[in-house]
């Protein structure tokens, strides 16, 4: 489908800002490669070729910058319960503390409760730089509560970035108010640009005072989404597009979605895996629709990356998420607890924290580049994946047995590239390892050549080696990329000397030589 939308006429400043956003989009947004001289937002080096104004808006935004998510936190406030569309992958249940997925929240807040919670979290967690409203319904289906919350937060905490996440149906109607409210980052979920595919994803929408179904509903939604994206881009508002990858429904089609959103000024594209466990009660979950494998998701992201850079560090957050991406500290900030807190919001303390973080990032970038320079002139075509256990800060600082997820990096003669994360069940339970969980973890990272950890016990270490995955603990509490590059150089040296034989992972074959003999 080719949706046609018109361009409005905006003030000169807005046009200039829009051109700047488009320039950033043409540079593929937030590059994740650490190659020297190729840095952009979220890189290991720094600003790179991003315009200064754009860099300042993304450098400490954990969703718009892959590198920043190691250091900075976000929070969502659940002030928007109503929704104007129905998705077959969504079930907006409340009070589900053990679920981590969009549309879930334990508490619904008023705008006044929300701002108190924001101040309490920001005073406790100086790394919290971003407030988002992402539901549990759609923020623009709850415009009074949404914009009142943003108004109160902007006055009380002017250093916090404001974000909005929407399905886009009502978006064109609120462009002026979004700009007026100083909401500088908007995420739109766009799963298709083909109404026939959309009819398989959306049972209905509520638009223009009535319910629409089928292809008609999907056509209206798609046109409104693309129109809203283009209008935001013209205003200089940074836009991230989320797309849910649904195998055999929109998976191949998302390449076309990627091109369409890039052409309309999207800054970043986030293709997320469908969450379809039956216990979540969604239509797709109950009818047996499977989600993609990690390898399928990565392949699709790779196929789209030539058009616009891909967000690969998304954790598909709850509507009340608090903390770094990948962690949830919302239980520490329930309404009852927050209302009893004596909050002291100190802008100087928060700025001092950010200054320290930026110093650390500069030191990390320098160390990574020094290590990367040692690969200069390397012509090997070998590329491989490694898994990393980390708590954040860009460090290898998690025990293997305590890891809830592993971050996956691709290593090659060009350096490191973050390609995603794999959630796993925690291996250590009360001081003892669960053998069944270990087998599941190994299957989850069986396409990786190594796993970097701060510490690992003898039992899992031996099992990993037998599976052809090298456990690496000699870089504990050191920078991830610097350590990975150092290990990769050593790996190439061993391959060249014949000490080990490089084989592709993810099949029945494993590396021979030194690794097997170590078992």
From TrEMBL:
It holds the Pfam family Radical_SAM. InterPro entries: Aldolase_TIM, Di-Nase_FeMo-co_biosynth, DiNase_FeMo-co_biosyn_sf, MoaA_NifB_PqqE_Fe-S-bd_CS, Nase_CF_NifB, NifB_C, rSAM, rSAM_sf. It comes from the Bacteria. Pathway: Cofactor biosynthesis; Fe-Mo cofactor biosynthesis. GO terms for molecular function: 4 iron, 4 sulfur cluster binding; lyase activity; metal ion binding. Keywords: 4Fe-4S, Iron, Iron-sulfur, Lyase, Metal-binding, Nitrogen fixation, S-adenosyl-L-methionine. Residues 69-318 form the Radical SAM core domain. Its cofactor is [4Fe-4S] cluster. The keyword DNA-binding does not apply. Involved in the biosynthesis of the iron-molybdenum cofactor (FeMo-co or M-cluster) found in the dinitrogenase enzyme of the nitrogenase complex in nitrogen-fixing microorganisms. NifB catalyzes the crucial step of radical SAM-dependent carbide insertion that occurs concomitant with the insertion of a 9th sulfur and the rearrangement/coupling of two [4Fe-4S] clusters into a [8Fe-9S-C] cluster, the precursor to the M-cluster. Belongs to the radical SAM superfamily. NifB family. This is FeMo cofactor biosynthesis protein NifB. It comes from Bradyrhizobium brasilense.
């Amino acid at each position: 489908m080719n949706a046609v939308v018109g361009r409005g006429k905006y003030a000169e400043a807005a046009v200039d800002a829009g051109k700047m956003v488009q320039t950033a989009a043409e540079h593929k947004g937030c590059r994740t490669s650490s190659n020297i001289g190729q840095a952009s937002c979220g890189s290991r080096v720094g600003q790179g070729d991003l315009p200064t104004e754009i860099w300042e808006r993304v450098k400490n935004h954990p969703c718009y910058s892959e590198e920043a998510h190691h250091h900075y936190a976000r929070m969502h406030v659940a002030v928007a319960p109503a929704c104007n569309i129905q998705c077959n992958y969504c079930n907006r249940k409340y009070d589900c503390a053990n679920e981590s997925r969009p549309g879930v929240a334990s508490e619904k807040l008023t705008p006044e409760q929300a701002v108190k919670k924001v101040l309490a979290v920001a005073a406790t967690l100086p790394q919290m730089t971003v407030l988002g409203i992402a539901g549990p319904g759609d923020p623009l289906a709850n415009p009074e509560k949404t914009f009142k919350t943003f108004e109160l937060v902007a006055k009380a905490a002017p250093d916090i970035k404001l974000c909005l996440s929407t399905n886009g149906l009502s978006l064109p109607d609120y462009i002026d108010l979004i700009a007026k409210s100083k909401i500088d980052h908007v995420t739109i979920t766009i799963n298709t640009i083909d109404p026939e595919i959309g009819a398989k994803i959306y049972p209905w929408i509520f638009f223009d005072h009535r319910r629409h179904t089928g292809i008609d509903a999907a056509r209206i939604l798609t046109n409104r989404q693309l129109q809203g994206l283009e209008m935001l881009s013209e205003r200089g508002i940074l836009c991230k597009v989320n797309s849910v990858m649904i195998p055999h429904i929109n998976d191949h089609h998302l390449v076309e979605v990627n091109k369409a959103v890039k052409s309309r000024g999207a800054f970043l594209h986030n293709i997320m895996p469908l969450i379809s466990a039956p216990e979540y009660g969604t239509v797709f979950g109950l009818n047996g629709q499977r989600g993609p494998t990690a390898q399928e998701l990565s392949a699709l992201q790779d196929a789209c990356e030539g058009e616009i850079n891909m967000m690969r560090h998304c954790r598909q957050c709850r509507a009340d998420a608090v903390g770094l991406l990948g962690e949830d500290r919302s239980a520490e900030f329930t309404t009852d607890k927050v209302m009893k807190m004596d909050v002291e919001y100190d802008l100087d303390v928060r700025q001092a924290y950010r200054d320290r973080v930026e110093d650390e990032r500069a030191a990390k970038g320098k160390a990574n580049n020094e290590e990367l320079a040692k690969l200069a002139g390397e012509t090997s075509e070998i590329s491989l994946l490694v898994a990393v256990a980390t708590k954040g800060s860009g460090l290898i600082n998690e025990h293997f047995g305590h890891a809830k997820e592993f971050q996956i990096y691709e290593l090659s003669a060009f350096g490191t590239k973050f390609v995603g994360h794999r959630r796993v069940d925690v291996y250590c339970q009360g001081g003892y390892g669960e053998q069944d969980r270990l087998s599941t973890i190994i299957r989850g990272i069986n396409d990786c050549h190594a796993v970097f950890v701060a510490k690992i016990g003898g039992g899992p270490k031996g099992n990993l080696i037998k599976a052809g995955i090298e456990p690496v603990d000699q870089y504990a509490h050191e920078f991830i990329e610097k350590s990975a590059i150092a290990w990769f150089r050593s790996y190439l040296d061993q391959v060249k000397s014949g000490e080990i034989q490089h084989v592709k992972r993810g099949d029945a074959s494993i590396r021979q030589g030194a690794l097997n003999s170590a078992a």
